[in-house]
Amino acid sequence: MLCACAPLRLAAVGVVTMLLAAPAAPAEIYRCEDKGHVRFTDRPCDAQAEPVELRAPIIVPAEPHPDLLGDSDKKSAARRKARDAADAAWVKDYTARKAAEERIRHGRMTRTVVEGMKPDDVRRLHGEPDVVTKSRGGKTERETWRYTLDDGTQLHVTFTGGAVSAVRTRESKKP
Question: Is residue 64 domain-resident?
């Protein structure tokens, strides 16, 4: 059984189909000024209104891009790894410096010459050297101080770069 509204439905479907299939007409844009306010509209504001010439829009084609979040995570991980390496290097250097400072402090307390001491430290412990010998090996300049201790033992202290680099003792030969 057909109802009387069937022709109306067919007509409505036909109109909708034609509207969807019809190409969209370019709409005209008008610039309107009212009390210092500018607005754009699709209808003329007054009888003298003329459409505004618009430049063609810039269309940027969408290109596939790598995973931005993944890239960010990789960069963050690289920065974290570099920071951790720098921190580890600092801790290693700090630990070495503290150990050297402790070794020198212990040497001062026990009145023993140790590597890393400065010339003033050695002078405080043993005074001025009996003999000073200077030598140069390439770019390195060395200075060796020799002391004769109270028991006749000879103490040789070598400085490289302004710090003790070697300490040797030599027993004296008894007649």
Answer: no
Is the residue at 106 inside a domain? yes
Q: How far are the Cα atoms of 77, 117, 164 from residue 111, in angstroms, in the given order?
A: 50, 12, 14
CA distances (Å), origin 63, targets 32, 60, 66: 38, 9, 10
Q: Each residue of 148-175: pLDDT tens digit? A: 988 889 999 999 989 999 999 988 665 5
Tokens of 98: 């503290």
Provide the 3-class DSSP secondary structure of residue 39.
strand
pTM given for the model: 0.49
- CA 146 from chain centre, in angstroms, equals 50
Q: Could you tell me the residue range of the domain that residue 98 belongs to?
A: 73-110
What would the two tokens of residue 139 be? 């770019």
Beta bridge pairs of residue 131: 146
